[in-house]
Amino acid sequence: MKKTLFDKVWDTHIVDAVENGPQVLYIDKHLIHEVTSPQAFSELEKRNIPVFRPNQIVATADHNTPTQNQHLPIKDTLSRNQLEQLSSNCAKNGITLFELGHKYNGIVHVMAPELGFTQPGMTIVCGDSHTSTHGAFGSIAFGIGTSQVAQVFASQCLLLSKPKSLRVSVNGKLKTGVLPKDVILYIISKLGTNAGTGYFCEYAGDVFEEMSMEGRMTVCNMSIEMGARGGMIAPDETTFEYVKGREFAPKGESFNKKIAYWKTLPTDEGAIFDKEYFFDAEDIEPMLTYGTNPGMGIKVTGHIPEINDASFEKSLKYMDFKKGESLINKPINFVFIGSCTNSRIEDFRVAANYIKGKQKADNVTAWLVPGSKQVEAQIIEEGLKDIFDEAGFELRQPGCSACLAMNDDKIPQGEYCVSTSNRNFEGRQGQGARTILTSPLVAAATAVEGKIIDITKHLN
Amino acid sequence: MDKFITLQSKAIPLAIENIDTDQIIPARFLKATSREGFGENLFRDWRYNKDNSLNENFTLNNNKYSGKILVAGDNFGCGSSREHAAWALSDYGFKVVVSSFFADIFKGNALNNGLLPVQVTPEFLNVLLTEITEKPDTKLNVNLIKQTISVEGTSFSSKFEIDAYKKTCMINGYDDIDYLLSKKEEIKAFEAKNID
Question: How far apart, in Å, are the Cα atoms of A103 and each of A100, A113, A304?
């Protein structure tokens, strides 16, 4: 039988099945962080169950960490307590932790691929919905709840029913100024926020084949925003080249054996998907969102659609936008470049390339938050920090930061923030804050102009 | 986990679509390290005004409505995987959430916490919303064994789907850890064969 990439990885991880019920899926790699793990550790302790495979767990502190003065004790008592609990839980159970200040610390979905933990053909879970990011390597990666974190601690397995399969193909050549973020925002704007619910999505076609690993991660990251538990891209030379030589990746002969296996993973010609969508790369323009879910996206030069629906109107009211309105020239006071979607080195290169020789607008507060300590180091090494400093941008320390505003990085009430993160939900970036999702290029241009501009007219 | 077999209760309408888990429990309340107490901040930014006074217009603050069933708009629980959303709904006192569509992760989290997600057709959801909004004393009957939800004193009734394994877990109050631990030998055998 012809198999999809998803089938191949899923089928090789089935341990057992409940009669007429879910399957027992083996998990290769379990990533944890401070927010969704403490209750799982307590659950195990309460029931006197040991952590089954501590060597397959990797921990980092990211959601709740400050992005300034990370060397000082954390002021917020609850945050400090949560981080201390992570440290003591990891120490007690023999789990590798890259805690705050460690040279490998960072957002879980940035640091794990960067260190070579993420590899093709794996099953990877984490108590975070953006775990779909790791699917960029051709792995089955998805977010889980805390009860499931406890299940994986206890058994290195999960009970799951096999999801349906969906393929989104984008062929052709992307226009100048159209980045991976625009591609995924475009797809979600066309398919809506629940088109993928119950499905695992494979992205296929020239556009993804030609994309860098970092771009692929940006795309797979937002699969959950169309409801899909995960997204995947077939591993190829780009993938192997990225994984090669990374600290925790296989080396030498073992790596060569892995590559031989990884090459068997792509979807067989003629395999059947439950649902398929096709798009043309030429139709995609730089995008932005105008509403309170990631499906509410238009091209930057577009107009807000005129839809008569109570939920739609509630959303526009929150954003203080009108039907039919264009957002060009809309004044913006906050810009955030960061999050597990867009905080990798390529994102900062794009921003720096645009910003170089320009100045940030006076009205704008612009936060640049790298995804990891390694990205931060690279920003400095490549001289990008000098460009940001000269232009008046603030480079902060790594973490999830203003993507979910759990720490002090909050956008004030009523303010618009042009953000490279993944969610524009009400209050996501702070109570009453209004989020406009874009690529790092559009975000950088907004910070320079102090308003939203037609980026296509400003490219060389 | 609490068992769930049947429930008769009044219900609270929340006719908003795409309610994400950030609305159910905002991120700033996720710093706690235990499962208890999240109900206090359930729908925090809809329940309270900017000055922390009660938002009288929000359904949970409307004295007309009460009960252990929440009837919500399409695509309930999308967004973040935070199980705190299920904990907050349970902690507030809900036993059942009804919608025409649930996001995957939320549905799993709810089932793992004895909170029953009942998915009905958009048409039946409209019937329920109309009935409970116009007649707040209306009671709904949820029967997990028969997989039915009905409006007491009317002929409105609908079947709902649930995974057979999860149904057994809910009825008996079992969770997946018990099952997975019973499979330890199979898991070790799988590792011996497949993991290098």
Answer: 9, 15, 44
Does the pLDDT value for residue B195 go beyond 90? no
Q: Would strands A287-289 and A365-368 be described as parallel, antiparallel, or unpaired?
A: unpaired
Q: What confidence tens digit (pLDDT) does each residue in A48-70 have?
A: 999 999 999 999 999 999 999 99
d(C-alpha A201, C-alpha A232), whole Å: 6
Residue B2 is predicted with a pLDDT of 85
Angle at A168 between CA A285 and CA A456, to 5 degrees: 10
Closest chain A residue to the Cα of B114, Cα to Cα: A147
| pLDDT beyond 70 at B44 | yes
Is the CB of A93 inside 8 Å of chain B's CB atoms? no
Q: Are A309 and A286 in contact (CB under 8 A)?
A: no
User: How far is A154 from A93, CA to CA, in rounded Å?
Assistant: 12
Angstrom distance (rounded) from CA A409 to CA A397: 11
- Chains A & B: contacts with CB separation below 8 Å: 178
Pairing of strands A140-143, A123-126: parallel
Pairing of strands A23-26, A157-160: antiparallel
The string of pLDDT tens digits covering residues A137-168 is 999 999 999 999 999 999 999 999 999 999 99
CA nearest A410 in B: which residue? B28
pLDDT in the model for residue A19: 86
